[in-house]
Structures are given as C-alpha cells and as structure tokens.
Design brief:
With 286 residues, the chain is of the alpha+beta class. It contains 8 helices and 13 strands. It has one domain.
C-alpha cells in the first residue's frame, strides 16, 4: 500500500520561524554598583586619579609642665590609572538587513553593551588576588556557617564599617548555604509564618538574601582557577575595598560603510579600576 507520508509530502509542509529570538544566557553583573566610584573626577579629562591617604594619629600621655608631642606623618597615596579601553563591534550587510525578519542591529547592539559590562565586572572580580586580609575557607570544600562568620570577623578586625558590606559567591556556594538549616528553616528563625530574609530576598535578580545582615549575591562571573581541586574565589568585601572610575560610559556609534554596503556598529567605554583598601576584603575560598 502506498501512503502519503511527511517525506513524500515534504513540499507542502512549511518550516515556521518564531518572531522572537532566543538570546544567549547572560551572567549576572553585580560589582560596579557595589564599589567606590570616581567617575565624575575623570569625566572628559585625565588619565590618573590620585587619592591622598590619611593615617591615624596616636594619643600620647601629657605630663604637667611639658610640651605636647607633635606628630609628623609622611603620607602615601592610592592611584587609579584610566587605562582600559574596551570595544565590541559588528557589521550588518544590507542584504541581511533587507531579507531578515528580525531587527538584528537592535539585538546585537544589546549584546555588545552586555559584552562591555561583562568585561568591567570580570576585571573587578579579578581583584580578589590583591586583597591582603587572610583568606578564609578551603579550596574544594563548600562554605560553611563557620567560614562566613570568620570572614565577617576578618573585616571587623580591620575596622571595616558594617554598612556597605557584600558577599558574592558562585551559584554552587549559594546552593551550599541553602543546605544550612540555620538560614532557611522557620524553626531556627523563630517564626513559622514569616519568610526568612533569604527566602524572601530583596528586589534584585541576583541578590539572594542577607546573611547576618549582609547582602548575599551570586554570580557565575566569580573567578575560578583550574586545578585539583578547582579553586573558587568567592569574596566578602566592603564598598571601599575596590574603586572604579568610568571616564566614558558605554556609548554606541553607528556608521554606514558604502564600500561594504553595510552598517558598522561599535559600543566602547574607557575606565580604570583598582584596589582601594586591600584589607577591606577577604577571599572566601571554596
């Protein structure tokens, strides 16, 4: 018996293209809003920011009839070099623009902007290696409650203010903390009718909640070093641990290139970044 099948009738069966596109998944970009910013100082000029450091003074005993002890301190400075210039560009030929049912220029411009933001976020997360406070935790071992407490104590010991502190960890370590009943169980929190701060979470896509009053972020951008075991460089830091100076905010420029019969689009930015207070952050190893 001869049947009409999808093979023999293939010319009658259309292929359907969605009007929506499926963009590549994007990592969470969290660092820039959480650190000290010096954008306004270099907006439109300069290639280096000099930040004078002010040391503490010492209280001396005063003996009656004697002179006070004056203190002369040779101060240092912290500098930020504005030496990063990043760009992302693409070119769309006229034939593609004419025949495509998608607004590819808009789609790829959005992705170009993300690429620039991702580069800045990556640079800032890489500063973990310049922190001078003693690291806590152990590579290859999930973070524990004791590890988090020790990290907090480390910042306490260097007089980092409690305000403006942040945890940022790999998603795997968010999962590790989720397994700690202390932070998610109503029994431990004392109110079975109320969501915990961790469960409820503030209004941020990647702000999971708070641990001991400190915002707890997660991101796949957190640095890792290949090895046995893999080294994961989570962090707890105060806002003044790191600095970013965005001299030129990401800008989009487009021009028509007749030689190629195409539109060329570029997104670029100019910035500098640095460790500001090396003791105000601690690597939380896992």
């Amino acid at each position: 018996m001869a049947n009409i099948t999808t093979t023999t009738a293939a010319v009658f069966i259309p292929e359907v293209w969605s009007l929506e596109t499926l963009r590549a998944a994007e990592a969470s970009l969290t660092m820039a809003p959480m650190i000290k910013r010096y954008d306004s100082l270099v907006r439109g000029r300069g290639d280096t920011i000099h930040i004078p450091n002010i040391s503490n003074l010492t209280a001396n005993d005063k003996t009656q009839g004697s002179e006070v002890t004056t203190q002369a301190i040779t101060e240092t400075e912290t500098s930020i070099s504005i030496d990063q210039w990043k760009e992302t560009s693409f070119e769309i030929e006229d034939i593609v623009k004419t025949q495509s049912q998608y607004d590819l220029r808009s789609e790829y411009t959005s992705k170009a902007g993300y690429a620039i933001a991702e580069a800045i976020d990556s640079d800032l997360l890489g500063l973990y290696s310049s922190l001078t406070s003693t690291d806590v935790g152990e590579y290859g071992v999930d973070v524990t409650d004791a590890t988090l407490v020790t990290a907090i104590e480390t910042l306490d010991n260097v007089n980092a203010p409690l305000e403006d502190r942040y945890f940022i960890v790999k998603p795997s370590q968010k999962s590790a903390v989720m397994k700690l009943d202390k932070f998610v169980s109503a029994y431990h929190l004392g109110d079975v009718n109320m969501s915990s701060p961790v469960q409820k979470g503030p209004n941020s896509r990647y702000l999971w909640g708070e641990i001991y009053g400190i915002p707890f972020y997660y991101s796949t951008q957190v640095n890792t070093t290949a090895g046995t075991p893999t080294q994961t460089h989570n962090m707890l830091f105060h806002k003044e641990a790191f600095a970013l100076a965005l001299q030129q905010a990401p800008r989009t420029q487009a021009s028509y290139w007749q030689k190629d019969l195409a539109w060329i689009v570029t997104v670029d930015t100019i910035y500098g970044f640095s460790v500001l207070r090396s003791t105000f952050g601690v690597e939380v190893r896992s």
